[in-house]
Design brief:
Number of helices: 4
Radius of gyration: 29 Å
Shape: globular
Strand content: 25-35%
Number of strands: 15
Largest sheet: 9 strands, parallel
Structural class: alpha/beta
Amino acid sequence: MFRELLGDSKKKKAETPVQTKSAPVAPVIDTVLGTGARFEGNLKTEGNVRIHGTFVGNITSQAKVAVGEHGKLEGDLTGEAADIGGQVRGNILARRVAVARTGRIGGDLRLEKLVTEEGAFIQGVVTMEEKVELPDVPKPPAVIAEKQSPVPAEKGSSQPDVQAKAPPAPSVASKQKPVPKPGAKNEPAVSSKDSGDG
């Protein structure tokens, strides 16, 4: 009888997966520029950013931006937090900035909290505020593209290119008149010129 009870409880455990009732959380994905790599352009992201190579342009993140010991950023940095171990030539706007002993900043800082190690270098105006307002980062184009109409609006049309909540437009084939079966008498095939759609 003891074995039956133990055997049943083991089966119930194996058959009953643990379920959580919390909503799924989207993982924070890191954007990494590796050592020896060079990138030119602007970056806007909701996730963390790590720079170990050379980045020429502005970075805007709703998370942490870290410039590694051998990393270089030539542009402005905006983020929740900034950890600087390499070189930054540009302004920094963040709630928290930490500059390591190898960190070099040439630009103005606007922040709530500043942490520096002995040997860190900052050349610029440091403005500490009680609350720093960070700009919103727009959703990536891939998210917006999923909600676009598959047929773009023509020039001069009053319809916008993006229709966020509209259902997809019907396919071109559903707008055409049916083509008669081969061998049908006195009915010409429909072309785009004949249908008035072109």
